[in-house]
Structures are given as C-alpha cells and as structure tokens.
Design brief:
By secondary structure, the protein is mainly β. It has a single domain, classed as TonB-dependent receptor, beta-barrel domain (Maltoporin, Chain A, Beta Barrel). 5% of the residues lie in helices and 54% in strands. It is globular.
Length: 705
C-alpha cells in the first residue's frame, strides 16, 4: 500500500478508530481561545491570531510572531473582490504579476519573491498548499497571513511568509444569504450560501455555496469562474468534530500580459490597450475533496487528522510581446509569440496528523505540538511549439489587430512535456513554555523530500532539511507584550540545471523584534515589528550556458529588512479602523547578473488606511487610501514604476427585518480620482507591466436569512 492509499484509508477509518475514545472521553477543560482578526464589527473585540505560527489559536498578544487575519467581512466592507484587495490590509504584502487570470493573483511578502522559476502561486487552502488555487470570494471566511518564514507548523514555509485562504465550513445554526453584484466593464458576481442543521440534537449540519463571478473586462480580457462548495459536519460539543467537503471550480479566462516599457518607463498608451491576441480561451478546472477530524483524547490532549485531494486540468493559450523592440522597425514595435499548453494535469494529495497537549510540569505550563504530514504533487504539462508565423509583430502605439492565427493542426506541432513530481514527508515538533510573564517557543520541522521538475531526462533531487525556530515573549501588562524570534524555512526551486538536474530548495532565515498592544478595552490592537530576512540557494542564471535562459544554478542570495506596523479594530462606537504601514528594503546579494540590484515590485514605503463611520445603525460610509512609493519593474532595475495614491469610497445601507433577516446594499467607488498607476510587473522582464484600473463602480445587494 503506497502512502497516499494509506492516508485515504486512515481518513475512512478515523471515525471508527476514534469511536472507543469518544465513548470514554469527557469534554476538555481547556477553553478555546479566540482567533485574531484585522478588523471586526464593533460588537466583537479584535482578539484573533492565525495558527500558522504556533499550530494552535491564541490571543494575538501571546503570539510571538507576526500574524494577520483579514476577515471576509472586512474585504466586502472595502468593496474588495480579489486576493490583492485582501492583502492590502497586511503590512509588507505587495502585488506580483502572474498570467493565470485575475481570479489567481500573485504576491510578495517582506520583499521575498515567491517565484522560484515557474511563478506558481504559493497560497494555502485550509492549511494545504494548492498550486494556482483561485480566490473565490463566496468561499472565503478569512485570509490568514504569517509574515516571515516562521518554520510554519504543519505546512511548508515560504521565505517571505505564508498566505492561507480559510474557507467557509458548516456551522451549527440555520442561516443563508443571496448576493448579487455588478460593476463597471461587465463585472458581475452572484452567490448563494445555505447552512442548515440536519439533526434535532444540533450535532449534524451541512452547508452549500454556489457562485458565478465575472471579473471586470476593462482591459478587454474575460475571466469567468463558476464554483460550488459543499460540506457536512458532525460534532459532539468539544469532544470531537468530523467534517467532509467537496469543491469544484471551472475558470475560463484570457491571460493579460499588460504593456511594455521604453526608456525606463511604461509606454505612454491608453491604460486599457490590450496587445495580446490568444487564438483561444484558457481554462482551469479544480476538483477538491477534503476530510477533517479532531477528537479530545484526554482533558488536555487532542488528536487531529486532515486529508486533502485535488485534481486539476487546464489548457493555457497565450499570446505575448517577446524580447526587445525590433530594430529597423517603427518605434514601439515588438515581436509576438504564441504558446499552447493543452491538457495539463495536476494532482495533489496531502495528509496531516497532529497532537496538541497542555501540561503542567515543575510549575511550568507546556503547550506541546507534534505533527506529521505527507504531501505529494504531480504535474504533467505538455507544450506545443506554435510557429512564429502565426503571431505577427505589433506596434504598441498604432496596433493593428486580427492578424494572429491559430495553428492549422495541433497534431503536426512539435510537442514537449514538463513534469513535476514532489513527494515530501515532514515532522514538526514544538513546545511553548509559559512561566510567569514570559513565554518561550522552541520548535523545529524536519522535511525529507524527493523533487523533480523539468523535461524528459531531468534527474530528481533527494534532500533532507531541518527548519528550527525560537521565540521569546514578555508580557509587559495585560494589554502589551514584546517579543523576539529567529525562524527558518525552505521552499522547492522549480527549475533544473544545464545538466538536467533538479535543484535543491531555497532556504530562508529571519530575525524579528516586535511589540503588540491592545487599546480601547481590547477592541483596538497595534502591532509593530522590525526584521531582517536572508535567503540562500536562490536560482541564478547559469553563466556557462548564456544562450539558454532556462538553465539555472542555486548560487543566488538576497536580503530584505524593514519595519511593519498596523492598528486595527474599533476606535469608537461609530468608527472602525484598519491601518498598516511597511518600510521594506530588499536587494539581491550574490547573483552573477543582478547582484546588488533592488528586488522588483517591492516599494520602500507602502501605506493602507481604511476607516468606516456609522452615521446610524443603517447607514455607514467607508473611505480608504492605498499608497505605494516608486519601485523597479525588473531585476535589472532599468524601468521604474512611479509611486501613487489611490482613494476609494464605499457607502452601505442595511435594513434589519423580522426573524434575523436583513437586506444590505453597497455602492463602492474605487480609484475615486481616476489615478493612473501600475499594479505590478513581471519579476524577470520589463515588458509585462499591469496597469491599474481607472475610476470604477461596484454595486451589490445581499439578502440574509
């Protein structure tokens, strides 16, 4: 029996294996601790902290790491619909560029680029890494972020941090909602969410959510996503929880490669000018099955088991500007190329088991965590070589459209195959010791993995890594703590060398000092941190093969350091606030080509300020400003994206009805002053720059019952 089959068998057997324990177990006497939000309603104090750092939920002030949780309610209140909208509330989070549609967005945390060759999006879904997983607003409960590697408990830790999309799960209550929204340039969203208790003893519940989302076509590219999510859960108070869920999404989109740069600036063309003409739509279909169970073995010890299985299929058809401007042609003329990846298949299987336990030993309180996780990801990605003759050049100032053609026959095109095979087993061990006003966290994660990424003939790399961490926290008072930590992480490099050898993983190590405080009776929380993050084993161009841009070594390194601050929660009975600021200095160090250069897409200064005023219980007005200083668009630092400030305004009205029902209407005016700005660029080159949308309007209505 292989490891995947064993994991699935354990999942099926779990309820029966746990039954004898459940029959003997009494409810745990350990109270469940609140979880940390960025901004909560005035009636709910901000006292949550994501469990990515320590494996268990804890009061924000008692977590000696930088962790942020952005609830879906806040994202909606701000008129947000994308992952980048959510991450604007996280200090140190900045946008990166990818080409898998606007439902799947990339990001940079603490100046550490997530790209390791292929640009796969590094998000987690409910604690499991799912490559290129789309952001579906109707499915999201919160977006939790661990800033910095943190040797993340139970999951692989990315260098700059970890973004976990927490999805909505069944609850022991009867409720539902219907949402209908529309916006400028064809933006549209509708969703239905229904939760029902299925048993009279309130132990069994089910939840189904269905949605359709069309993102704005202001840049003349489509992106439609249809999705459905179903879950069923059973619990017996705090003794045990069992949950099973299925999720399916179908996405149809066209990649947007933005605009290029000339003479160190983005070209001066209309922001909505589209230069790509793919000869067909790209598609992605995801199918996810997940199982969860946790049981109180004793009053102080809990066992949890999580299983996730994903099957994804996709077709990618791209048409893009390539290389430098063509010599001997009118200024602004670029060559274009088409690429075609038909029938890509991806499969992910993840199994995690963990024990958490609280004990009093020698007068010290110990909070122990032991986790074992298995992860396997396979990818088969065929690529067809599309003739250059099908994609004529284009002048970005005077474009002529309609000249790109589809290949006559796919069967006649040369074909290559890129494969990925990642199999890892890891053990995480941690102890948090509380003694008086002090807490000490010590832990490590050992990972054994075999990894292959490349075309036929590529050899795998077999590696073992330790990722330790250490943190110390001091409680200054009931409302303030200071802390220091040292943490490490590792992440695979999805490239190969000139000798067709898969390369060992990238490493990261960070030192951080922080101060956290609660104000206004715990309804307002502040967080200040300074850090220094070093990365080694980063990919760098192989200078022995200068004519091949896809041969790499791991001789690169980088360093980022900075300050991050946030202030979030309820200021008065009428005013809610979410503010964050980050200073980030990120540079490449050892690199044969870009040594000493500033990491692209990383602005030195970023500021997000959002406030909402309740005129009455029904009428509320929100206003926000998002600021970025200038940053470079490419690794060579040849092109600069100017700084900008974008203003948003949101007006909402809520009408309470009988029996807990309500109607909510919202009008969001984004980019109020029609500011011209650029969201991000591609990491490696300056010819794929994403413009920001001009002034646009979104209107939505929600009926809750």
């Amino acid at each position: 029996m292989n490891k995947t089959s064993l994991a699935l068998a354990l999942g099926v057997a779990f309820p029966w294996l746990a039954a004898p324990v459940l029959a003997q177990t009494v409810p745990s006497s350990t109270p469940s601790l609140p979880v940390t939000t960025v901004l909560a309603p005035a009636t709910q104090p901000v006292q949550r902290a994501g469990s990515l750092a320590t494996g268990t939920d804890a009061n924000a002030l008692d977590t000696p790491f930088s962790a942020t949780s952005v609830p879906a309610e806040l994202i909606r209140d701000q008129g947000g619909t994308t992952l980048q909208d959510a991450l604007r509330n996280v200090p140190g989070a900045q946008a990166d560029t990818g080409f898998n549609g606007s439902h799947t967005q990339f990001f940079i945390l603490r100046g550490a680029v997530t790209d390791s060759g292929t640009g796969s999006n590094r998000v987690l879904r409910d604690g499991v890494r799912l490559s290129n997983y789309p952001y579906v607003p109707a499915f999201v409960q919160s977006v939790d972020v661990l800033r910095g590697p943190g040797a993340a408990i139970g999951v692989r830790s990315e260098p700059g941090g970890t973004v976990n999309i927490v999805t909505r799960q069944p609850q022991m209550a009867n409720f539902g909602s219907v949402l209908l929204g529309a916006g400028s340039h064809g933006a549209f969203e509708t969703s239905v969410d229904l939760n029902r208790v299925l048993s009279q003893d309130n132990e069994l519940a089910a939840r189904v959510t269905a949605t359709r989302s069309d993102n704005s076509e202001w840049r003349h590219v489509r992106d439609r996503l249809d999705g459905i999510k179903f879950g069923i859960a059973k619990s017996d108070g705090d003794r045990y929880h069992l949950r099973a869920g299925v999720e399916a999404t179908n996405q149809t989109y066209q990649p947007d490669y933005g605009i290029p740069a000339l003479n160190g600036r983005p070209v001066a063309v209309p922001r909505d000018r589209q230069l790509s003409e793919p000869f067909g739509d790209s598609t992605t279909s995801n199918r996810i099955v997940d199982l969860h169970g946790d049981v109180a073995l004793t009053r102080s010890t809990r066992l949890a088991l999580d299983l996730t299985h994903l099957e994804a299929s996709s077709t990618s058809i791209k048409n893009l500007i390539n290389g430098n401007p063509l010599p001997g042609q009118p200024t602004g003329t670029w060559a274009r190329v088409s690429s075609w990846e038909p029938g890509t298949d991806r499969r992910i299987d993840s199994a995690t088991a963990s024990l958490t336990s609280n004990h009093q030993w020698s007068g010290l309180q110990h909070r122990l965590y032991l986790g074992v996780d298995y992860y396997k990801e396979t990818l088969n990605q065929p690529t067809l070589s599309v003739p250059a003759s099908t994609s004529p050049s284009i002048n970005v100032f005077y474009p002529v459209y309609g000249r790109v053609t589809a290949p006559v026959s796919a069967a006649l095109l040369p074909r290559s195959l890129t494969t990925e095979n990642l199999e890892s087993t890891a053990i995480s061990l941690q102890d948090q010791v509380d003694f008086g006003a002090w807490s000490l966290v010590a832990g490590t994660r050992f990972t054994q993995q075999k990894f292959l990424y490349g075309t036929a003939g590529t050899q795998p790399v077999d590696e073992s890594r330790w990722s330790p961490k250490l943190a110390l926290l001091r409680r200054l008072s009931d409302t303030g703590t200071v802390y220091a930590n040292v943490s490490t992480g590792t992440s695979p490099n999805q490239v190969s060398s000139s000798s067709n050898q898969s390369l060992p993983s990238r490493r990261s190590a960070q030192a951080e000092l922080g101060w956290k405080a609660a104000w206004n009776q715990g309804n307002l929380v502040s967080d200040v941190a300074i850090y220094r993050l070093n990365q080694t084993n980063m990919i760098a161009a192989d200078q022995s093969t200068p004519l091949n841009n896809f041969d790499f070594t791991v001789t690169g390194s980088a360093r980022s350091q900075g300050l991050e601050a946030s202030l979030t929660g309820t200021l008065t009975e009428r005013i809610d606030l979410a503010a964050s600021y980050a200073y980030t200095d990120a540079k490449y160090e050892n690199n044969p080509v870009y040594g000493g250069m500033t990491v692209p897409n990383v602005a030195r200064h970023t500021l997000s300020l959002w406030g909402r005023y309740a005129w009455t219980p029904e009428w509320k007005t929100g206003a926000g400003v998002y600021v970025q200083s200038r940053r470079y668009a490419d690794e060579a630092n040849t092109t600069t994206l100017p700084g900008y400030a974008r203003f948003d305004l949101v007006q909402s009205w809520t009408k309470k009805l009988d029996n807990g029902q309500s109607i909510e209407l919202q009008v969001a005016l984004r980019n109020l002053f029609d500011k011209e700005y650029f969201v991000s660029s591609h990491l490696h080159v300056n010819r794929w720059i994403t413009p920001g949308q001009g002034r646009n309007v979104q209107v939505s209505g929600t009926y809750r019952f």
